[in-house]
TrEMBL record:
Belongs to the IspD/TarI cytidylyltransferase family. IspD subfamily. In the N-terminal section; belongs to the IspD/TarI cytidylyltransferase family. IspD subfamily. The lineage of its organism: Bacteria, Pseudomonadati, Pseudomonadota, Alphaproteobacteria, Sphingomonadales. The chain holds residues 1 to 215 of 375 of the full protein. The record marks R142, K196 as: Positions MEP for the nucleophilic attack. Keywords: Isoprene biosynthesis, Lyase, Metal-binding, Multifunctional enzyme, Nucleotidyltransferase, Transferase. This is Bifunctional enzyme IspD/IspF. One of its GO terms (molecular function) is 2-C-methyl-D-erythritol 4-phosphate cytidylyltransferase activity. Bifunctional enzyme that catalyzes the formation of 4-diphosphocytidyl-2-C-methyl-D-erythritol from CTP and 2-C-methyl-D-erythritol 4-phosphate (MEP) (IspD), and catalyzes the conversion of 4-diphosphocytidyl-2-C-methyl-D-erythritol 2-phosphate (CDP-ME2P) to 2-C-methyl-D-erythritol 2,4-cyclodiphosphate (ME-CPP) with a corresponding release of cytidine 5-monophosphate (CMP) (IspF). Its EC number is 2.7.7.60, 4.6.1.12. The record marks R15, K22 as: Transition state stabilizer. Pathway: Isoprenoid biosynthesis; isopentenyl diphosphate biosynthesis via DXP pathway; isopentenyl diphosphate from 1-deoxy-D-xylulose 5-phosphate: step 4/6; Isoprenoid biosynthesis; isopentenyl diphosphate biosynthesis via DXP pathway; isopentenyl diphosphate from 1-deoxy-D-xylulose 5-phosphate: step 2/6. It catalyses: 4-CDP-2-C-methyl-D-erythritol 2-phosphate = 2-C-methyl-D-erythritol 2,4-cyclic diphosphate + CMP; 2-C-methyl-D-erythritol 4-phosphate + CTP + H(+) = 4-CDP-2-C-methyl-D-erythritol + diphosphate.
Length: 215
């Protein structure tokens, strides 16, 4: 059994306000991409970590994670995942992770891989804390919703099949593609450490979270 982790890092990160793409910007004193690369590489069940980067980002990645294995991604997130899947040919299990989520607790990976024994895919989710409203004004019962994080774990052949069959346009995660095959994706408990860094203020919040965790 071979388990490969793909870190998709080929986005522009334009909402973050940082000069370089946000995945290379410092978070708590270390380039964002270096955090998740170190955590995934250190997990005993993960055999290989491949970073999917944007064209021309080789030097940025080399400065952040000198030894990283990489491939060039594509225009949309799903194009980048597909490029990673091609590089991961021969894998039995694949974890797909957003570089925008630097802190990856090993306990979440453990939950995902344990659940993957009985499911084609597993994703980390957290409950929604806010009251939710549709943009037309209707309140939505938050108990019926969950926040989806990454890494998302899949049987590698199933995920490749899902990407090949997908006709739904832009996709913000991989689980929706697997569900489109008619398969059910299991949910495990996520972790606030995995929250995505999107806006400038998220960098400060993330650095504070690391401080709390490591004190
Ligand atoms: O834009 P968003 O934050 O949703 O992107 C999620 C992840 O997908 C990020 O880590 C980003 O770098 C990655 N991505 C990618 N290729 C793209 C677009 C996004 O690897 N074309």
């Amino acid at each position: 059994m071979t388990t490969v982790a793909l870190i998709v890092a080929a986005g522009s990160g334009s909402r973050s306000g940082s000069a370089a793409p946000k995945q290379y910007a410092p978070v708590a004193g270390r380039p964002m991409i270096a955090w998740s690369h170190a955590a995934l590489s250190a997990h005993p069940a993960i055999d290989r970590v491949i970073v999917v980067i944007g064209a021309g980002q080789q030097a940025l990645l080399a400065a952040a994670v000198p030894s990283a294995e990489w491939v060039i991604g594509g225009f949309e997130r799903r194009d980048s995942v597909r490029a990673g899947l091609e590089a991961a040919a021969g894998a039995t299990r694949v974890l797909v992770h957003d570089a925008a989520r630097p802190f990856v607790p090993h306990a979440v990976i453990d939950r995902l891989l344990a659940t993957l024994k009985d499911a084609p895919g597993a994703i980390p989710v957290l409950p929604v804390a806010d009251t939710l409203v549709a943009t037309d004004g209707a309140t939505i019962a938050r108990e019926t919703l969950a926040r989806v994080q990454t890494p998302q774990a899949f049987d590698a052949a199933t995920l490749a099949r899902a990407h090949a069959a997908w006709e739904g346009g832009s996709a913000t995660d991989d689980a929706q593609m697997v569900r489109a095959l008619g398969l059910s994706v299991a949910q495990v408990e996520g972790d606030m450490m995995l929250d995505k860094i999107t806006y400038p203020a998220d960098f400060t919040a993330a650095a504070a979270r690391v401080g709390v965790e490591t004190r």
